[in-house]
Prior knowledge:
Blueprint: H1 2-30, H2 39-43, H3 52-61, H4 67-74, H5 82-113, H6 118-156
Amino acid sequence: xxxxxxxxxxxxxxxxxxxxxxxxxxxxxxxxxxxxxxxxxxxxxxxxxxxxxxxxxxxxxxxxxxxxxxxxxxxxxxxxxxxxxxxxxxxxxxxxxxxxxxxxxxxxxxxxxxxxxxxxxxxxxxxxxxxxxxxxxxxxxxxxxxxxxxxxxxxxx
Length: 157
């Protein structure tokens, strides 16, 4: 009887120590002492056990190119809230648009340095900007139509 009680106490102490270690790993991730991608955190699935608010804090610390990896480590089966996925999809679209506009601006600066007529440059800029804006709007519409189709498919299931 005494042996079974001692074994039970040992098991309880060991389980409590594991819980404390996992809580410390989670705290280290939140305080940026460790990254959620750290092998020890991945091994113990630290991200899956966090509350939603903590997950968002961890996600806010991630670099844009690491977002998908972080999402897979924070939500099981990569089922992150759709708002996160939508946010980063919109962010990628906006960054691409801004990059295209920056390229256009530099192109027009080069034209000005080469001595081209300012009226010609401004007409070119306005036309090209409208074209880029139209492409950007088409991408946003496609993204929305895909989201609508996805919602309809989920509602059918």
